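Retro notes
What went well: the complex prediction finally ran end to end.
Inputs used:
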Amino acid sequence: MAKKINKRDIIKLLNQWSKDFAIFAPSRESGVAAMAKWDGKDTEFLDWYRNTVVAPKANFLPNMEEMFKFQKDKEGYRIELPPDGEKQLIFGIRPCDARAMKIIDNNFKGLYQDPYYLNKRNSAVLVGLGCVNPGESCFCTSLDISPAESDDVDLMLTDIGNELLVEPISAAGKKLIAKTTGLKAATKNDEAKAKEVKKTAYNKVTRKINAEGIVERLTACFDDQEFWEKVAAKCISCGICTLLCPTCYCFDINDEIFRQQGTRFRSLDSCAFPVYTKMPMENPRAEKWKRVRQKVCHKYSFFPMSFKDIACTGCGRCVRLCPVNWDITQVINSVPAKEAKKRVKEGGRG
Amino acid sequence: MEQKLRSEARALLEEGKVDWIIGFEPGSLKFTTTPLITKDKNDTERLVINPFITNNLANFLTEIKGRVGIVAKGCESRSIVSLIQDNKVARENLVIFGVPCPGIIDLSKLERLAAKNRDELDEITREKDRVIIKADGKTSEFPVSQALFDHCLACELPTPKEYDILLGEPTPPIANPTAQESIKKLKQLVPEERWAFWAKELSRCVRCYACRNVCPACFCQRCFVEETEPQWVLPAPRWQDNLIFQIIRNIHVAGRCTDCGECERVCPVKIPLRSLTREMYDIVGELFQFKSGMDKDADPLLTHYEEQEAEDFFR
Amino acid sequence: MKQETEWQPRLVGFLCRWCSYAGADLAGTSRKKYPPNVRIIKVPCSGRVDPLFILKALRLGFDGVLVSGCHPGDCHYQTGNYRARRRIAVTKSFLEYLGVAPQRIQASWVSASEGGKFADVITEVTEGVKEVGPNKLFSERQGDGAETTKRG
Amino acid sequence: MTTNISPSKFLAQDNVYLPHIAVIEKIIEETPNVRTFHFNFKDKTLQKDFTFESGQFGEYSVFGVGEAPFCISSSPTRRDHLEFAVQRVGRVTNALHRLGVGAEIGFRGPFGNSFPLDFLKGKNLVFVGGGIGLAPLRSLIWNVIDNRNKYKDIVIIYGARTPADLCFKYDLDAWGKDKTIKFTTTVDRGDESWKGKVGVVPKILEEAAPSARDTVAIVCGPPIMIRFTFPVLTKLGFTPEQMLTTLEKRMKCGIGKCGRCNIGNVFVCRDGPVFSYAQIKSFVSSEY
């Protein structure tokens, strides 16, 4: 059953929820939009918020997190796990980023469960906020995402003027709504308005990619060095497009001992960095074009081979934030439809 | 100007005088350009020069092999000269298209002035000392001092000194004092506050290394942050390590940094990096009367010395 | 009653093996008195001191760093100390701008025969660092208030 | 492609990233820069739960320095302790070389797939190893020797750059004496006391010319050796399905999560490290 709430009352709603959850909401300290711990007052983001610079995956896969501490005493090494984190409620996550969470769940679930990610993820509630003003870099609709609709959140909010329509999506969302006070029942008119808002938002997304048969297309041109060298020419091998991507999850593990206290950290890593794959004697992706190829193919070919979904949600961050305007939509669109030049794979390792 | 650039660039490729052309072409977003790095003479038709040519193209010289025709604004020409000083590129392998640059428009500033996102603006034009924005059918004007990048307002060499072909007429420096405002403000703080400021700013750093990778002066094959034996800093984004990275990066590029402002522009989390680089630029200017990238025959800053200098740093 | 003991700074001294290190030796053998707060690291030349060493020492919590080499003109490798001079001038000026007290980064020229000067330098440097107190530059609390550290 | 090896019960419950503490019991200096470490788990009850197959690897921690993957070089048939061999090349391997007997390390594993014993059973086996590449092979070789009647002829060809670079000399002695094995060692460059063969491994293999009939070749060594060995085997009549090798990539997590060891959609840590040449040829990517 859809409900609604006046925008003025969002502050009350969040305060109510903050009894059970740590609330994260869009904030822009120093001009950088990120999901930050809500300060208990500010709901101004309803006016300025389009999307965060730092993707909300950072709430589940932080840029840096402690895996465990270790210390040596008379009896040898002792390992100590960090305390369990708080239950998070992410308020205002966009449908593209919510889908991204569902996509990277695949990596952290499976044969081996990743407790750091899954503990945070399983205890969290995602409250989606429909995006009514998609940017020129956004291309979510090409990847089967609608900017103001989502099945990947627990609750979905839609801006219908002075009010937000509140729709429960998941069982957790229904449960949350059932014990939330201060929501009014939505009218037929409200729901019709929301439908219109969603449609308008969908049509505002003008950037398109041609993801048709992309796995096959990329497989066919995988060995076309000339193509990839051209694509990679202006890339500067920084980590912006990967570290800030909502679906990039690759990480690194490092140890440190500081004043006798040992800690093992995990931090995000990027396939754009040459050291990412560097072994002492050789590096399979020392060349820039190979790293760019890996990035594109991981998202649009390898990941769907393993998990069906393309690991891109068209959030547009990589397009917006790239220092040299390397635009993945242009790259994907330029991957030839037909069989490209194929390297002959004989004679063992290439 | 663009026509001349296109035909000259095409001719260079056709005559085999260069292997590569590096310039700017229109970007995929509004008011952007993107580096064009090509061997194909037909691509030269896409070359542009406009108030949005932000990148420092000298950055690509260290990875490209062969002879290069390169478009260079004042700051780029200085970066190129600096690379020549460091023996990173050879002057004879370059054909430099000098572009007198009256300053590049800072879209972040316009976003604040217009209270709109950049993709919501319809038109941006530069007229002498004003920048004119059209949006929602309304026109507004701002003086360049509010609309250009800080480093452009502080630019000492808008017209390249080192070039082969100059495109257009020389343009004078703007020399607007507001460019150093943020550094002045910082200097008014007590030391503890300054340090706390940087600790906080650097705590946003995600270690994407865009500041380093976009910098023509950062040309190390392997950066010290990637060293493992010993591991100087943790290769993970913790503010202490982030700050050490920035401090050492600035010391490494001392005398190479030409205040092109790219590091600050590209930072996705808006760390005011130019308040570091520009201060270093001024420090070496003050201590050693050194201006990077002005004289290709000069020694690099830190390989040179005078017998009498900087003695007050020593007991 | 608990006795108030004065806080003692911990210092690192990077000493050139050709001069200052020998100067330190001489100070010791000639029984010159100077504060025992310095951990000495022998380097082949003051020019060997990478600014990174200085930062690393501060990161590890040392309260001050001293770099000491041969007098200008006396470098065993001709120009090492001249280069060190530029590097240290740049490093110190820059760190001062960032908010590091200048007392924490010190440099001196001490020859092998200047045992007395070495003792004086250490005394002065120690006193200077005592003035500015313990090094808390990299302690955790500095980055507080920036939520994004932990997450984004 | 994904193998269906289920996670070992031995792994820390609830958190596969937590290492178990192991104690180094013996260190053998194989060459100036290769050492073999014998270890056992500190918690003796874990010792019982631990099972593994030849070809699998572990993630070894030097606390404070980091973690690195190495194959378990001892055989599952010999269980009084476990072994791994390390060439000193980087941060973690240097730190391992600084450890002494009694030092504690961390161990996570076993990870990855293993040599397909069912496929090898009843066949002739040709082992081709180079340098420290013998480490994973020797786990399998001892495994096979301990079940000698299940396999037919065994040929081992092992080489290193110089006599001083030959690893596991005690094994080489034992195999040399074993009448049921055809064993050859070779070096690229000999010295005065060297009486064995001289020449690179692929050349010696070509001379030895083992029959491909009912045979599987298992190859492990430096990439350059593997690159030249496959064509020789092909010439000798081996099909890609009859050639096995183990691949090496930079790894962190060991369980296919952290991303870096992929070759196309294949993760060496999770889907490998053992692959047939036929599999390798079918990879989407040529980055092996």
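What we learned: Chain B has eleven helices and eight strands.
What to try next: split runs per interface for comparison.
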